[in-house]
Design brief:
mainly alpha
Length: 237
């Protein structure tokens, strides 16, 4: 469980940040949207979940929705410019980050069935803090913390609290639902960001975002529908 926490909060974030040094945000988000599809593949390979056709189609629709929502940014993205070109390393790093998250989502299930969600969340996050604290020594984090302003402490505290609550809810969902049905909701991230940007910041809401919302909604509906009697019979065989 300590390894899962360190991977979820340490390895995944490090790989994602490395990828963002070599890719645009939209390109990285598109690759990371494969998270649910990777979860389904790993969960089925490990015998944790039945990869039904309906579930697969739902996941693919959600990925298509993410791609559609990001299409304007991908089409308008400039040349690498300030981003350092690292060949395929950036793409591979983001894909590895998504794979790490998918694997953690699948492997958490046995612990969540055995133990309450709060202790699992606390232990995993504590383990990740220990690993990250050691790795951050190279960036002299102890000296940097001493010079943080009050505003920085407030922002850091808010991020930590919201991340902790979000992580607890994520594990709670994994305790009661299959990994793929939980991770498929990640497809809502770019569309939610677009809607909030429109509502709070006055940013224009593009037609692609509305079409993406339709695809994602259809994908979520298919992926989260209860299994039919035929599907349950096929799973038992």
């Amino acid at each position: 469980m300590a390894a899962l926490g360190a991977s979820q909060f340490g390895l995944l974030i490090a790989l994602l940040n490395y990828g963002l040094q070599h890719l645009g945000a939209a390109q990285a988000a598109l690759i990371f949207s494969l998270f649910p599809l990777l979860t389904l593949a790993l969960s089925a390979a490990l015998g944790r979940e039945q990869a039904s056709r309906r579930l697969l189609v739902g996941v693919l629709l959600s990925v298509a929705g993410v791609a559609l929502s990001l299409a304007p940014k991908l089409a308008a993205r400039p040349a690498l410019g300030g981003l350092s070109s690292g060949g395929w390393w950036g793409e591979l790093a983001v894909l590895a980050a998504a794979t790490t998250g998918a694997l953690c989502s699948v492997l958490y299930r046995p612990y969540l069935r055995r133990y309450p969600t709060v202790p699992v969340s606390a232990f995993a996050m504590l383990a990740s803090v220990g690993v990250l604290a050691v790795l951050a020594m190279a960036e002299h984090w102890t000296q940097r913390v001493a010079h943080l302003s009050t505003q920085a402490w407030v922002v850091t505290g808010f991020i930590g609290l919201s991340s902790g609550v979000g992580y607890f809810l994520w594990l709670y969902a994994l305790k009661h639902e299959s990994p793929t049905r939980v991770t498929v909701f990640l497809a809502l991230n770019p569309v939610t960001a677009a809607v909030l940007g429109w509502a709070w910041l006055g940013e224009p809401l593009q037609a692609a975002s509305l079409g993406a919302l339709g695809l994602i909604a259809a994908g979520l509906w298919l992926a989260t529908r209860p299994a039919t009697a035929q599907e349950m019979s096929a799973a038992r065989r």
